[in-house]
Amino acid sequence: MTNFAGYQNEIYLAGLGGRIPDLPITAAGLAERAQAELSAEAFAYIAGSAGAERTAAANLAAFDRYRLLPRPLRGTTGAAARDLSVEVLGTRLAAPVLTAPIGVLELVHERGEVVVAQVTAELGIGTVLSTAASTPIEEVGAAADAWWYQLYWPNNDEVARSLVQRAQAAGAQAIVVTVDTPALGWRPRDLELAHLPFLRGQGLANYLSDPAFRATLPVPPEESDDAARAAILAWVGMFGNHALRPADLQRLREWTDLPIAVKGIVVADDARAVVDAGADGVIVSNHGGRQLDGAVAALDQLGPVVDAVGDRAEVLFDSGVRGGSDVVVALALGAKAVLYGRPWVYALGLGGAAGVRQALRALLGELDVAIGFCGFARADAVDRSAILLP
Predict the structure, then answer these.
(1) Could you report the per-residue pLDDT of 97-135, keeping only the tens digit for each?
(2) In whole angstroms, what is the distance from residue 125 CA to residue 117 CA?
C-alpha cells in the first residue's frame, strides 16, 4: 500500500525551507511551460492533434460533464485507509495508471523511454512502450518493471512477429495492439513545420534493431547515408496495415502467450468483435484526438464499451486524462486502469527524470485524495455510484 497522497505533505514541508516545485503541478501548467521552452517541432508533435483539434478538445470537455459525489463520512479520507493497487491483464500495479505509449521521445530527451521505465518502476505503476520508440525494446525492458509492449502492426507479418517475440523475451507482460493508426491523421501543427520525425530516422530504433526488418534491407543502414535513407523508405512502405481485421488477433495469439489488449476502440460493436476474436482487453481511446478530427470523445464511449464487453475482457481508457479526478471518473465508468499521456512528456522535456517523477506523483497524489473523498478504500472498488451521470 503506497501513500501517494503524502506527496503534498512533502511539497508543503519543503516550502518551509523555501523550496517550491521545479515545474508546474497541473497538466495545463506543464503544457504552457513546454510551449515556451521546448523546440517548436517537439511541442507541435506532442501537443498536436488532427484537423481543428476538435476531438482533442472534446476529450477534455467530456470530463466536465461528469461530477463526482463526495462521501466524506465513510472513513476513507485518511491516506492509511486506502489501497490503490490493482491487477490489470495479470499485471500488478500500485495504482490503476500506466504511462501511455508515446513515440519519438528523443524529441525531448535522449534516453526518454529508459527514464520513463525507471521512474514508473520506482513508483510501482506501469508503462507501455511504443513501437515508435527511440530506444530498442531490450534496453527499455532491462530498466522497466511492470511494462507492456504496444504494437503498430506493420504490413509485414515477419517483422510484426519479431517485434512481439522480442518484447516477450525482454519481459513485457502484455501486448497492446493499436488499431486506430493504419495511417497518420491529418495534423496541421506538424504540417505547418513540414516535420515528420520518422523521415529523419527518429523513432525507428525498434525497426532498425530488428533482425526481420533488417533482413528486408539490401544494405545495413549503418553503412552509408544512402543505406540509412533506404531503411527509412523501407519503414515508410511497411508502416500502417490497412488490411488488419479482428480475426488477425488469432495470428497474434500464435506468436505470444501474453495477454492481448486492443487499443483505439470507441464503438461497442468493435469492442465485441475484438473480444470475440480473442482479445483479453480493450482500451477505449481515440489516440488523444490525433487521428480523426470531429470524432466522438473517448470518455463518452467508455460506458457503452464496458457494458458491451461485460466480464469477458478488461476495459482500460485513455484520451483526455489530465488529473487524478479524471482517473476516478474513468474508473467509475468501468475502466480497470487508465493510460496517461501528454503531461508527463512535457515534464520529461522540461526536467528529465525529476520532471517525469513530479508529473506522475502529482497525478497519483490527486487520485489518492479523490478516491478517499469519494468514499472508497480501494481503487478497484470504485463504481458508478461515485459519479453523477450527465
Answers:
(1) 999 999 999 999 999 999 999 999 999 999 999 999 999
(2) 10
